[in-house]
């Protein structure tokens, strides 16, 4: 089993623990935490630290509906022990791969053509309809167009691996990029790669054709 080498920074985990991370980035971080025991422990530590801080704050009067809303939210949560299973409202994964449980509440389009050996799917998150979430499925040995970013992109590798000139990212690895990164992810020859990506702003592609395709799919 491949050891996970790349993890979310503590500021992302802290924002997730505090509930202040937007829906799209939160989902990508959640898929990583689901696969990574190290980050689950870090997140639990940050949540515990936040609980201690809350205990030290002066008490405030709750609204009459606070308990009812809280209980309703708890009832709506899926059981943690739910086993991974095929998800009918997501596109079919490769044989032997199962979508993360974090995606259970999402829906997504069928796989759509992006280029030779490349497909994409737009993911819809009911809790945050404005989130720009994508599944990317890139064939072995293929490469995305060289690009940078107008804002932040978070990527979780779900299957396979790629190298973008900075490092090798394999299944379970997490990547955060922004305008300071100019790269070209290349999928390894051993097999196709599937990633979940949350994009804030836009991907800024070097080539005109890639820029046009990116604009058409709001990437």
UniProtKB/TrEMBL annotation:
Domain spans labelled ChrR-like cupin: 103-195
Looking up Pfam families in the UniProt record yields:
Cupin_7 (PF12973)
The protein's matches in InterPro entries, at most eight in alphabetical order, are given as: Anti-sigma_ChrR (IPR012807), Anti_sigma_zinc_sf (IPR041916), ChrR-like_cupin_dom (IPR025979), RmlC-like_jellyroll (IPR014710), RmlC_Cupin_sf (IPR011051)
Domain of life of the native organism: Bacteria
Q: What is this protein called?
A: ChrR family anti-sigma-E factor
């Amino acid at each position: 089993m491949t050891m996970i080498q790349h993890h979310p920074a503590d500021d992302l985990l802290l924002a997730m623990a505090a509930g202040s991370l937007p829906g799209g980035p939160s989902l990508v971080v959640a898929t990583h935490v689901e696969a990574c025991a190290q980050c689950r422990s870090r997140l639990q530590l940050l949540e515990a630290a936040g609980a201690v801080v809350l205990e030290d704050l002066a008490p405030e009067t709750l609204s009459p509906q606070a308990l009812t809303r809280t209980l309703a939210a708890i009832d709506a949560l899926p059981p943690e022990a739910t086993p991974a299973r095929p998800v009918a409202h997501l596109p079919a994964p490769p044989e032997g791969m199962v979508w993360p449980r974090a995606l259970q509440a999402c829906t997504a389009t069928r796989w759509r053509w992006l280029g030779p050996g490349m497909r994409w799917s737009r993911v819809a998150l009911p809790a945050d309809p404005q989130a720009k979430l994508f599944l990317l499925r890139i064939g072995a040995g293929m490469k995305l167009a060289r690009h940078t970013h107008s804002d932040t992109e978070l990527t979780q590798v779900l299957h396979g691996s790629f190298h973008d000139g900075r490092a090798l990212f394999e299944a379970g690895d997490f990547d955060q990029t922004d305008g300071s990164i100019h790269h070209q992810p290349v999928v390894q020859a051993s097999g196709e790669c599937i990633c979940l990506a949350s994009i804030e702003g836009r991907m800024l592609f070097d080539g005109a054709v890639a820029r046009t395709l990116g604009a058409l799919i709001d990437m």
